[in-house]
Write a structure and sequence with these properties.
The complex is a heterodimer of chains A (about 220) and B (about 325). By secondary structure, chain A is mainly α. Chain A is built from 10 helices and no strands. Chain A is globular and about 50 Å long. About 5% of the residues of chain B have low confidence. Chain B contains 10 helices and 13 strands. In chain B, the strands form 2 sheets. In chain B, strands 1, 4, 5, 8, 9, 10, 12 and 13 form an 8-stranded mixed beta sheet that branches. In chain B, strands 3-2-11-6-7 form a 5-stranded mixed beta sheet. The chains are: A mainly alpha (about 220), B alpha+beta (about 325). Chains A and B meet through α2 and α4 of A and α4 of B.
């Protein structure tokens, strides 16, 4: 079995299953099987999906630095799946807010989006992630050409907005959003440093061709 | 919005200041004449020291709501008490080993009866009452809590504040060894709160020493805390060790932390939003996953009793 095949037939299904664990835990806790959602289940589910959305954005953005630093090019094969999980959890976070938290109460929702800056930037991040998820197929990537790369730099913007969105809604204890901000600064700083030192990132396509990994 | 019409003649217009200031002696004289009602043993508040101990001789109150109280489980596992952590399930986990006793309360400032009191002695003269109140958190969730406590007005009358006492300031225990949340400077410790003397004297305002007929759980502010049901929950300062009568408006913790977000008054008001979220609706804890938010009421539904306290006050500016 080649590395490409190992990634495709063992690595990806395995990572896919692991990435779904937080979602299954929400369902398990909801029915009291794996734990409990506490006194305010709506807030708990909302927070968990939002947190996992942020975590997966960080994990997806860590793929390229990790690949470059270790030299294991096969790591790049997981980037799209991890990015899609970030979009999935952020979308679930949005759905829980829309349906369970706001009860699809339109006046409240529109007022929140327009008047609450932390919700406005959250919506922008959601739209960016949606556009990237919709254009994540190999076919879309081919069709969009250079535009595709430009659009997918949106991953950096979405991550910044996501951390900002979190930072902006905590009351006094900024420890957790500050940790996310520090991690994001490292991940983006790595890219900036690479760009400034003019050492171009090794092309991942040369090691794991998109057509073969299906990415 | 319910705003009570002012009475034709205000009490201040017909009561001389000296009579008002000396009202305690008037009340005491009346009580003495009444055969020492307060001294009757059945009505004295006794605080057992064991966790979850039952409180005795609790009388019901006409101020209680008939709404269904939130479960003991939810009341004691979901709340804010930053002294034990900033997560809402932190207090019940981190306050488990907190030992409040012995507890001393210091009374300072513009009052005749100042000094340090053992909490048992401090509450003994008063009768315990059950007050089932709505509790609205500034974070837009709410509960119905069956508090057990004593009217703060009764305590203040005993302490005999002077005419200079315009405000009452409260202070929480500051002891990072026993309150692990204080090891991080999330707020400027100790936690501080305050009321105008009129708010403190209002019959709805209580010092609570229990929940569900039991002594106050550590995570909810053992052994004694403030409850002001028409204000956002953060005004209900917990684990009180200091009461000070002041002439000037005291500084309060959340106001110090974010002055444009948390005012001194912090009256529940659906028409004045928090800068970052709406205060128009609230989530009632325990109502289930698919329950919609319910409308928040002016003064948390206590407008009829308290709106007169704020006549002429701009509630948008004085949030």
């Amino acid at each position: 079995m080649t590395t490409i095949q190992r990634v495709r037939y063992i690595g990806k299904p395995l990572v896919f299953a692991v990435c779904l664990v937080p979602a299954f835990l929400v369902v398990g806790d909801l029915f009291g099987i794996t734990g409990t959602l506490g006194a305010n289940p709506v807030e708990e589910i909302l927070d968990r999906f939002g947190n996992w959305g942020l975590r997966f954005m960080m994990i997806a953005l860590a793929v390229t630095p990790l690949r470059v630093l270790t030299g294991y090019n096969w790591i790049g094969g997981f980037r799209r799946m991890l990015g899609l999980f970030a979009a999935f959890y952020v979308f679930m976070h949005f759905l829980v807010w829309l349906v369970l938290d706001q009860g699809i109460y339109l006046p409240g929702i529109l007022e929140d989006i327009v008047e609450r800056p932390f919700i406005t930037i959250g919506m922008i991040a959601l739209l960016l992630l949606g556009a990237m998820a919709a254009t994540s197929t190999a076919g879309m990537r081919r069709r969009l050409g250079r535009q595709w790369q430009r659009l997918h730099y949106g991953a950096y913007v979405a991550a910044i907005l996501g951390v900002w969105h979190y930072w902006w809604q905590v009351k006094a204890d900024i420890l957790e959003p500050a940790i996310y901000a520090a991690i994001l600064a490292l991940l983006l700083g790595f890219r900036l440093w690479k760009k400034l030192t003019r050492r171009s990132l090794p092309m991942r396509r040369s090691a794991v061709p998109a057509a073969q990994t299906g990415s | 919005m319910l705003i009570r019409k002012p009475a034709d003649i205000r009490p201040s217009e017909i009561t001389s200041k000296s009579n008002y200031v000396n009202r305690r002696s008037f009340i005491k004289a009346g009580l003495a004449a009444g055969g020492g009602l307060i001294a009757s043993p059945g009505l004295s508040a006794v605080l057992p020291r064991e966790p979850r101990a039952k409180l005795d001789d609790i009388s019901p109150s006409p101020f209680s709501t008939d709404e269904t109280p939130t479960s003991y489980e939810d009341i004691t596992t979901y709340n804010n008490f930053y002294e034990f952590g900033t997560g809402k399930d932190d207090p019940h986990r981190n306050a488990r080993d907190f030992e409040p006793w012995p507890w001393t309360l210091e009374v300072e400032g513009h009052a005749d009866k100042t000094g340090a009191f053992h909490l048992e002695d401090f509450v003994k003269p008063y009768a315990l009452e059950e007050r089932i109140y709505r509790m609205r958190c500034v974070e837009a969730w709410s509960m119905v809590i069956p508090w057990v406590g004593i009217p703060l007005a009764d305590v203040i009358k005993t302490l005999q504040p002077t005419s200079k006492a315009k405000y009452v300031a409260f202070r929480t225990l500051h002891d990072p060894k026993r309150m692990p949340g204080q090891r991080r400077r999330v707020l400027d410790w100790p936690y501080r709160e305050g009321l105008t003397i009129a708010e403190a004297m209002h019959p709805l305002t209580i010092l609570a020493v229990g929940v569900y007929d039991e002594v106050m759980p550590n995570q909810n502010g053992a052994p004694i805390r403030l409850v002001v049901p028409w204000k956002y929950g953060f005004k209900g300062i917990k684990s009180i060790v200091g009461i000070r009568f002041t002439e000037r408006m005291p500084r309060t913790s959340w106001n110090m932390s974010a002055p444009h977000e948390y005012g001194f008054y912090a009256n529940v008001n659906p028409n004045v939003d928090h800068p970052r979220w709406s205060q128009a609706r609230e989530r009632r804890i325990g109502s289930g996953l698919f329950a919609s938010r319910q409308p928040t009421l002016m003064f948390n539904g206590y407008a009829e009793q308290v709106a007169s306290l704020y006549e002429g006050l701009d509630l948008v500016r004085n949030y």
